[in-house]
Amino acid sequence: MEEFEVSQAAKKTKTVYISTIFSIALVLLMLGMLGLILVHAKNLSNYVKENIVLNIIVDEGAKETEVLAFKKNLDNNIAVKQTQYVNKEVAQHNLTKDLGEDFVNFLGYNPLLSTIDVYLKADYANNQNIDALRKSIEKDPIVKEVVYQSSLIDMVNKNINTISLIVLGFAGILLVIAIALINNTIRLAIFSQRFLIKSMQLVGATKNFIRQPFILVAALHGIIASFIAIIILLGLLYYAQQELPEIIILRNFTEFGFVFISMIAIGIFITAISTWFAVSKYLRLKIYDLYR
């Protein structure tokens, strides 16, 4: 009879542990998905900014060597990500391809000028930095004109800032909810062990001695739950990339790794802290309060 009761208690404890792990895993999955959304939103923002082009129209009298030397100086500029030189012949070929006919045969000459397309780093893709760069570029005698869409840049930066604030606010709210859910899950799990906690205290075990195994088990549950959430998240990420191949350009394994490590750290930290408070609560209670 006694062995049967022990067996039933062990099964009950195992069930509680399994349900706790999967409950925590679901919450961590929710946090991980939010983390990946933030990472992709940031990378998308950078991608849009770094595809804003400054067109430098080169003076017709400039020599090829002068243009290439000027391009090399631009490449060394801290604000510039990359440059692309398009000479008259290439510009003619591109426009002919777009129009579907050779406009040079119609006009009798090539009216296009050579250009240098400048792509900026995301941190410098704002009107203030671009205007300063434009003034610096226009001082060079081989430059005829610098063309860019300032209104488009303003609109892009404004929309990105607005979206970022909304997403960060939502992330903050979701983090609070996640902490509350994990805390409640841990408290329910510890509630089922309240008599064991009090029994250990009655036979003379210190509070730290009683807390330690519960905290270690909780941390282990946090790690297991984190890995379950990460595996599911990797599956969802793979599926998303199969359905939307375009998002591969936003992929950054370093940032993904940071999100996964953060999930593990949050899983361990919240479960350990919640367990500490939950066990401490039952250590303070009197025996008759355990039945309430």
UniProtKB/TrEMBL annotation:
<keyword id="KW-1133">Transmembrane helix</keyword>
<keyword id="KW-0472">Membrane</keyword>
<feature type="domain" description="ABC3 transporter permease C-terminal">
    <location>
        <begin position="170"/>
        <end position="285"/>
    </location>
</feature>
<feature type="domain" description="FtsX extracellular">
    <location>
        <begin position="54"/>
        <end position="146"/>
    </location>
</feature>
<keyword id="KW-0131">Cell cycle</keyword>
<dbReference type="InterPro" id="IPR040690">
    <property type="entry name" value="FtsX_ECD"/>
</dbReference>
<feature type="transmembrane region" description="Helical">
    <location>
        <begin position="160"/>
        <end position="182"/>
    </location>
</feature>
<dbReference type="GO" id="GO:0005886">
    <property type="term" value="C:plasma membrane"/>
</dbReference>
<dbReference type="Pfam" id="PF02687">
    <property type="entry name" value="FtsX"/>
</dbReference>
<keyword id="KW-0132">Cell division</keyword>
<keyword id="KW-0812">Transmembrane</keyword>
<keyword id="KW-1003">Cell membrane</keyword>
<dbReference type="InterPro" id="IPR003838">
    <property type="entry name" value="ABC3_permease_C"/>
</dbReference>
<dbReference type="InterPro" id="IPR004513">
    <property type="entry name" value="FtsX"/>
</dbReference>
<feature type="transmembrane region" description="Helical">
    <location>
        <begin position="258"/>
        <end position="279"/>
    </location>
</feature>
<comment type="similarity">
    <text>Belongs to the ABC-4 integral membrane protein family. FtsX subfamily.</text>
</comment>
<dbReference type="Pfam" id="PF18075">
    <property type="entry name" value="FtsX_ECD"/>
</dbReference>
<protein>
    <recommendedName>
        <fullName>Cell division protein FtsX</fullName>
    </recommendedName>
</protein>
<dbReference type="GO" id="GO:0051301">
    <property type="term" value="P:cell division"/>
</dbReference>
<feature type="transmembrane region" description="Helical">
    <location>
        <begin position="16"/>
        <end position="39"/>
    </location>
</feature>
<feature type="transmembrane region" description="Helical">
    <location>
        <begin position="214"/>
        <end position="238"/>
    </location>
</feature>
